[in-house]
Design brief:
elongated, 4-stranded mixed beta sheet, Immunoglobulin-like, mainly beta, about 500 residues
């Protein structure tokens, strides 16, 4: 009902106002409506005994007794519709959206089925979702500068910059994905080659490593380390350093192709000169004192000399034919010294080697029978003998920890690895040597507990060979696993 006002008349005691009864009726009606609206018709249920602060509202609470009490308005009973308005803070205070439980904080645009970005209620991490089917579905890079996105069709990540979407690389792309690298030149790289810069097309291309000579490359290198002359010295400072050979007084030099010619441009002068300055003997010296001086060769005891047609012959007239033929001979282990002029040495064959003497010829023969091999194969020494294997071949040995917990792997790049992942290359042959034997049979399987890999030869209790097919996709993962103890296993990954 509308508020009822008690008539008080025009002036005091003029008899024109409401009677006491009518005034009391109006007062009772007003209070009844207030008690009905803010109470239980008997009591007004407003409790501000605990105090109320600025900005609070009267909020119905059931405890400690049902009543309207001062409270912060912190609970929505329906969706908050800003209707074109913003949520702002006029001061320097933060705007905090706080989920006190474990639920997520979701940010959604569009209809209820639209993808959304969320803050994880457990970790507090921002999780972001922006997948696009194709590159053509990406939004404008100009409008979304700095945005990251994922294209499902390419399986790549992108970011927007300079009005264009830039595709991100991953480790599966390889260096060929770089715009300044071209690995297709001359049919692609070969073993031992390196990437070299080509100014003509501004790209890195495979080429021979001329420093090491690998891959059929050259041997360009410092041709000299240090060159010394009568006066002065020089040291090469780079692989392409240049040594200049300059002529001195009455000397000139010239190069034709790879030939250096040194010519004397002056005159020889008088041809007569001392042929020797000083000659020394065991107990004396002689010095030429004229240009025509003569040196005489005289034989001593048991020695005769003879000069004929420009040649001097020195003959031992009493040769000592019996003498120590050897002083000492040393081997990988041990040595022997001749004790007399007629001492002899015996050359004996060891394991897989035999020796034979015929006349003055010593023949050393390998007696170890080698297996036959076909073109392209290599000989690989196994446990006790040589084996013909496809080349290249990599060998790994498998032992156990003694408690059936894991394999211990040793081989190229792995030392005492525990169930270590082995990375294999297509076209390579791998030799798996199960040293444990039948105690831990070693199977090469397509998965944990799965079927055996095809084209594996040999025994699970000994040596097995597996040539990785060229058709096997990079990233394919197999396992090596004990057929008795399934926990003894490791991954085999094709790279």
């Amino acid at each position: 009902m509308a508020k009822q006002t008690i008539g008080i008349g025009s002036s005091a005691n003029d008899g024109t106002g409401d009677t006491l009864r009518d005034g009391a009726i109006k007062a009772n009606a007003n209070f009844t409506e207030i008690y009905d609206k803010l109470g239980d018709s008997t009591n007004v249920l407003i409790d501000i005994a605990g105090g109320i602060t600025e900005g609070q509202v009267l909020k119905w609470t059931s405890s400690p007794t049902p009543a309207f009490r001062g409270s912060d308005y912190n609970l929505l009973s329906s969706n908050l519709d800003t209707n074109g308005n913003d949520i702002v803070s006029d001061g320097t205070d933060d705007i905090t959206i706080h989920q006190t439980g474990t639920g997520n904080i979701n940010f959604r645009g569009g209809g209820s089925g639209s993808a959304y970005t969320r803050i994880d209620g457990t970790t507090g991490y921002l999780t972001w979702y922006a997948p696009y089917a194709t590159e053509g579905d990406l939004p404008s890079a100009t409008d979304q500068h700095g945005m990251f996105a994922h294209v499902h069709g390419t399986g790549k990540g992108y970011f927007a910059h300079a009005a264009a979407w830039v595709k991100l690389m991953d480790y599966n792309d390889g260096i060929s994905a770089l715009t300044d690298v071209d690995t297709t030149v001359n049919g692609g790289p070969s073993d031992g080659q390196v990437l070299k810069w080509n100014d003509s097309n501004s790209k890195w291309e495979p080429a021979n490593d001329q420093q090491s000579g690998g891959g059929g490359g050259g041997t360009t290198q410092n041709l000299f380390e240090t060159v010394n002359a009568d006066t002065g010295t020089t040291t090469a400072s780079a692989a392409n350093d240049t040594l200049i050979i300059a002529g001195g007084t009455n000397i000139e030099t010239s190069l034709t192709g790879d030939t250096l010619t040194i010519n004397m441009t002056g005159s020889l002068g008088a041809p007569d000169q001392n042929i020797f300055a000083t000659l020394g003997a065991d107990n004396a010296t002689i010095t030429a004192n004229t240009t025509t001086d003569t040196l005489t060769f005289t034989g001593g005891t048991g020695i005769t000399t003879n000069a004929n047609a420009g040649a001097i012959t020195i003959t031992n007239d009493s040769p000592n034919v019996v003498q120590n033929v050897l002083q000492a001979i040393s081997g990988d282990s041990g040595s022997y010294t001749a004790a007399a002029s007629d001492s002899s040495v015996t050359i004996a064959g060891g394991t897989g080697v035999s020796t034979a003497v015929s006349g003055n010829t010593l023949t050393i023969t390998n007696t170890v029978a080698l297996p036959s091999a076909s073109e392209g194969q290599s000989l690989l020494y196994g446990t006790s003998s040589y084996e013909a294997v496809a080349s290249p071949t990599v060998s790994y040995a498998f032992t156990s920890d003694g408690n059936s917990n894991y394999y211990i792997v040793n081989g190229p790049g792995i030392s005492n690895g525990q169930d270590t992942t082995i990375y294999v290359y297509r076209g390579f042959t791998y030799r798996f040597d199960n040293v444990t034997g039948s105690g831990h049979p070693l199977a090469i399987r397509v998965s944990d507990g799965g079927s055996s890999v095809s084209n594996v030869s040999g025994s699970v209790n000994g040596v097995q060979f597996w040539t990785v097919p060229q058709t096997l996709a990079a990233g394919t993962t197999y396992v090596y696993q004990c057929t008795i103890h399934g926990n003894m296993k490791g991954d085999i990954v094709v790279v």
